[in-house]
Write a structure and sequence with these properties.
This protein is mainly alpha-helical. It has one domain: Recoverin, domain 1. About 60% of the residues lie in helices and about 5% in strands. The strands form 2 sheets. It has a two-stranded antiparallel sheet. Strands 2-3 form a two-stranded antiparallel sheet. Helix 4 crosses helix 5. The structure holds calcium ion (3 copies). One calcium ion binds next to strand 3. Keywords: Calcium, Signal. This is EF-hand domain-containing protein. InterPro entries: EF-hand-dom_pair, EF_Hand_1_Ca_BS.
């Protein structure tokens, strides 16, 4: 539920307006804190996967894009955009492999875990890609 809450907050922002530097930082921190269950400032594979699996509403062990979008109270299309960034093989299912690949993608220094700085960087890239950061403004 923490993931859904963080995502809802985040999606609420991006549907209304462009994101500016300090807002992006706050949103990234909220999202990160939602994943970091033991609050040690480091995101591990188990924590990330547990958060993602929390949106498996029918309990079949797979989180589909439809489940993910439905779990969000925000616009369907935007929730799907976010999901597709995590869904590495684009089959509309968040598998263990997808979660591992995504975490490794965020883990830019290759330490096997993700710190807040790495997460914020990844977040900024997604927002740029989705066009929610004004041109020429990278939030820093
Ligand atoms: Ca942690
Ligand atoms: Ca499911
Ligand atoms: Ca997939």
């Amino acid at each position: 539920m923490k993931l859904i809450l963080a995502l809802s907050l985040f999606l609420g922002y991006v549907t209304c307006q462009h994101i500016h530097g300090h807002e992006l930082k706050v949103l990234a921190q909220n999202e990160f804190n939602g994943y970091d269950h033991n609050h040690n400032g480091v995101l591990e594979m188990a924590e990330f996967e547990a958060s993602v699996q929390g949106t498996d509403t029918n309990g079949d062990g797979h989180v589909t894009c439809a489940e993910y979008a439905a779990a969000s109270s925000q616009p369907h299309a935007l929730a799907l955009e976010i999901f597709h960034h995590y869904d590495q093989d684009v089959d509309c299912i968040m598998s263990h492999a997808d979660a591992v690949a995504t975490l490794h993608q965020i883990d830019s220094n290759g330490g096997g875990t993700v710190n807040e700085h790495e997460f914020e960087h990844y977040y900024t890239q997604i927002m740029k890609h989705l066009g929610h950061i004004p041109h020429g403004h990278n939030g820093r």
